[in-house]
Amino acid sequence: MIYLEHRPEAQLLPWVRLLWYVRAPEAEGRERVLPNGDVQMVINLAREYCAGCREGEEAEFRQAPALLVGTQRCYGVIDGSDLREMVGVVFRAGGVRRFVAEPAVEFRFAETALEAVWGRAAVELRERLMEAGSVAEKFAVLERGLVGRLRGEEAHPGFLLAMREIRAASRRGANVSVREMSAVTGYTSRRLGQLFDEEIGVGPKMFTRIVRFQRAVQRLHRGGEMRWDALALECGYGDQSHFANDFREFSGVNVTTYTQTVGRWGNHIPL
Fold it and tell me: Residues 12, 149: contact at Cβ < 8 Å?
């Protein structure tokens, strides 16, 4: 397997976390992918479709080869065959709104054909990516495609203030409530909900839950001996029971199963 990440150029960096490329010709099987609060773009370069699948169902269904994957509230299932050659874009929180006209809520909990969003430009981008020789050339093509779609408008200041509070709390291993965000930003909880729907696709309460869940996932993926009750407190949960319930809701498995089955990527669980 070849997996590479690329830091985007300065013009894109405020809105795009990273670009990635994977080539795994022998990939097969299915994996659960855990929610991380990000919106992503994925483009299959190995075949003319992405495989859609649901846990517990053997049959797959064909989706467009280029997808905009909205913010998810629980795990999804992917087919490993999609990883035979694929590129992707991980947007920062609110970043996708700089590249599409629609509010992020239009894409949440879904995988939308990029062609339905960008039109012919999505098809042409994929064609150029397939023609590019090296991985470096593919990243360059992808960057140019993103720059060509970049919209000038900035994110709403209320949303940016709220995100700053969420990040600051996360660095401390703590959480921030919607009420606290409202006090800091001066916007009502209802207005904050509208802003988060527009910029991310889910409300501030759900987003902060995903952020907290991800703290636990990354800590578990690093490995090492730990007590679940201590981990729960470290990640901002009130108690071990709350942690266990949240973990199962987002991942579909308990913490012990996760630690026994997780592989290279913390957000992927082989099925």
Answer: no
Tell me how far apart the terminal alpha carbons of the chain are, to the nearest angstrom: 19
Tracing tokens 């957000």 back to the chain, one arrives at: 267
Q: Does domain 157-261 have CATH number 1.10.10.60?
A: yes
CB-neighbour burial class of residue 199 (10 A; exposed 0-12, middle 13-18, buried 19+): buried
The full set of domain ranges for the chain reads 2-149, 157-261
Question: For 247-268, what is each residue's pLDDT tens digit?
Answer: 999 999 999 999 988 888 899 9
Provide the whole-model pTM.
Answer: 0.93
Which of 1.20.120, 3.30.70, 2.60.120, 3.40.1710 would CATH assign to domain 2-149?
Answer: 2.60.120
Name the token pair of 237. 């949960």
Backbone angles phi, psi at 58, to 5 degrees: -70, -35
Query: How far apart are the C-alpha atoms of 167 and 86, rounded to whole Å?
Result: 30
Q: Which residues of 24-48 are buried (b: 16+ CB within 10 A; e: fewer)?
A: beebeebbbbbbbbbbbbbbbbbee
